[in-house]
Amino acid sequence: MLRQVADGVLAHQSEFLQSNAVVVQGAAGVLLIDAGVTADEMLCLANDLSDSDLTVVAGFSTHPHWDHLLWHASLGSAPRYGTARCVATVRDRLSGPDVKARLAAVIPADVVDQVPTDLLGRISGLPTETTEIPWDGPSIRIIEHQAHAPGHAALLIDESRVLVAGDMLSDVLIPMLDANAADPIEDYLRALRLVEGVAGAVDFVVPGHGAIAGPDQVQERIDQDRAYVAALRDAKVVSDGRIGPSAKRARHRT
Ligand SMILES: [Zn+2]
Q1: What is the pLDDT of residue 247?
Q2: Fewer CB within 10 Å: N-end or C-end of the chain?
Q3: 188 CA → ligand 1 middle, Å
Q4: Across the beta sheet with 30-33, what order do the strands follow?
Q5: In Å, how far from its chain's centre is CA 157?
Q6: CA atoms lying within 13 Å on the CB side of residue 49
Q7: Nearest residue to 179 (alpha-carbon basis) of 143, 208, 147
Q8: What is the pLDDT of residue 183?
Q9: Which of 105, 118, 141 is nearest to 33 (CA)?
Q10: CA of 63 to the centre of ligand 1 (A)
Q11: Can you tell me the distance from the alpha carbon of 39 to that of 115, in angstroms, rounded to the nearest whole number?
Q12: How many angstroms separate the alpha carbon of residue 66 from the centre of ligand 1?
């Protein structure tokens, strides 16, 4: 079921790790960010949209992890985008033999049969200097950074004061660093500074997984992520309420 986040912005939450798909209303249709996880849920989303006479005119993936790259035929064949670096990473990971088997190995066993991978990762890279999503709708700023995954992008919908945070600023998942990066901790802290730089323009944060943060929780989410990453950097004992079964499960994702 779609729920309203703010004017012109709706979200659809999956049972899988509380994954949020975000719908932004434009002039001729909607932009769909991180479409969803299971076939049934994406079909349900497609039905909700068509019941409201809305068609998907563009898609966007916040980062190159499988649960943010999915799509279902019922959502149509609109162009789907990611940052250039995100797309380069996807191409690299989806090349070579046994792609299906490699994908099946990273998707948790309890959902793998429900996840349609045929249209996974069919995204085009936006040129590196792109600052906004190219579409006929409210302006959406692309805040690219390298925390969590290469070419990760948070999206700021200025008019609605909504930040779509990708896999940052979650209330259920601890910050997960990009283990392949040269300096993942500094990348993450730099990304948090970027996000904090626009926090004054944000009333709602929609994380890739978890609950939507309201106006009085935006800074708290940033501070919570920063405290965790700084503790890792300083090799302090990390105490964070988000560490638990869901975090353990998330660690298996790539
Ligand atoms: Zn991720």
Answers
A1: 54
A2: N
A3: 13
A4: 2-6, 9-13, 20-25, 30-33, 56-60, 80-83, 124-126
A5: 14
A6: 29
A7: 147
A8: 94
A9: 141
A10: 7
A11: 6
A12: 8
Q: Which residues on adjacent β-strands are paired with residue 11?
A: 3, 22
Centre of ligand 1 from the C-alpha of residue 171, in Å: 14
pTM of the predicted model over 0.70 = yes
Determine the distance separating the centroid of ligand 1 and the alpha carbon of 31, expressed in angstroms.
Answer: 20
Q: What is the pLDDT of residues 9-52, one digit of tens each?
A: 999 999 889 999 999 999 999 999 999 999 999 999 999 999 99
174 CA to centre of ligand 1 in angstroms: 11
14 Cα–ligand 1 center, Å:
15
If pLDDT is split at 50, 70 and 90, which confidence band does 244 have?
A: low
Tokens of 223: 């501070």
Q: What is the pLDDT of residues 151-210, one digit of tens each?
A: 999 999 999 999 999 999 999 999 999 999 999 999 999 999 999 999 999 999 999 999
